[in-house]
Amino acid sequence: MSMIFFACVVRVRDGLPLSASTDFYHTQDFLEWRRRLKSLALRLAQYPGRGSAEGRDFSIHFSSFGDVACMAICSCQCPATMAFCFLETLWWEFTASYDTTCIGLASRPYAFLEFDNIIQKVKWHFNYVSSSQMESSLEKIQEELKLQPPVVLTLEDTDVANGVMNGHTPMHLEPAPNFRMEPVTALGILSLILNIMCAALNLIRGVHLAEHSLQVAHEEIGNVLAFLVPFVACIFQDPGNWFCWLDQTS
What we know:
Number of domains: 2
Mean pLDDT: 80
Strand content: 15-25%
Oligomer: single chain
């Protein structure tokens, strides 16, 4: 009977998933434990070594050494000794396949997705090979657990990570910074005056041409636009000075 359902390798310092086993379980309870595992992965730096979080149907076990941690979702019937033996075997396989430089430079999730094949093989071995064939490895892990028991986490611990609790992110409201524009320089004032004068001149010419065009012919509309367009351009040519001037006068 399968007792190890899911396993993944993560980077300890930021919880970045490096590789994971193919997921064949899609029940609501299992997906909830996947979320708990992902949440816990973000805080592994706080729990060096081994740790467990147990629920009614599933349990999470993790084992971290250096900047690499292996995590697994297991059945509650899975002995902790077997789970940690599995995680240690997985850790050795991964660190033998990839050096610390590659692990440290990984920038995207599941950068070593091809390691999934190894995870599946090791998972199958622990799920279907009899314990008697792994007796020496299990005894070694059992002695280590007696000398240094794993950290026991509650389900609430797996729900809190990176400021997130139960899927809700607390809102931190801070007063908005009070920005004020810099004073307008003499050159800016001159530019503003010239823009106003040019805009007024173009507006006057455009109005006169509009009156004339309505009396003469439709083809004169192009001439009207030739003055009205520069008028609009002058208005929006230097909006920064407009806003600064308005800010100073307010």
